[in-house]
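Model it.
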Amino acid sequence: MHFVDSKGILTGNGGHYGMNIYRGCSHGCIYCDSRSRCYQFTHPFEDIEVKQNAPKLLEAALRSKRKKCMIGTGSMSDPYMHCEEKLRLTRRCLEIILQYGFGATILTKSDRIMQDIDLLDEINRRTKCVVQMTLTTFDDELCRIVEPNVCNTKRRIEVLWEMQKRGIPTVVWLTPILPFLNDTEENIKAILAECIRVRVKGILCFDMGLTLRDGDREYYYAALDQHFPGMKQRYIERYGNSYVLSSPKAKKLMTIFMNTCKEHGILCTPDECFGYLNEFPEQYKQMSIFDFDWEEE
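Modeled.
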């Protein structure tokens, strides 16, 4: 872990903004696209770059904006990695978002988000907060291999349920689906059944497969060699050097996914899900004296 002073924190076009407080990750997921060389890391991926001035930059940026909108985090680096336990930069940024009346969307795989559920609840009461959770593999043993340094899928589902009990809406990222590993009807149906049970608002699934780029591909194939002997050669024979690796079962699995979501009223297209995530409520849900129950003494 090393600390830097960043020049900026927000990216976006004004309708919504994104921020990444950290660069790199300690979760160790074998398929992580953020490892790709196109992102031009100049340090080892596990040597987390900490933007120590992120709260200061965020406060300066939000103070100057008249139009409120959604602020998202987690697209490149999980905001609840192990270092957040000590540094609490994500929490400080959420406090600033609350202070200035903006909304928040958070994407994570970690149950460390529970340490901030009080703050997420308050943001959602005043404006809007959406918790996004990645779910890929329902089998605990497989989950320990493909996502080794983070809580398993069943624990993440518990977190989704705790959010639901608070009235905090949730969106699931059902991605990536790894060919010949978790691309089974049993896996997809098990995850979907839990999503229905915990009443998620939407599920993002771009395809039943994964993408591999230079940097990411080498790391993934090394993990296949370690844990699934012979699997790398199977990938090479079928996909060569392709960027998009769709499961041979993609069409059938996508049909199950789409039909299940539509049957249960769950948002299931990227347009629907991103539209919901980026939509800021037009009227603030601010408290006033009329929101309280007054009793005569």
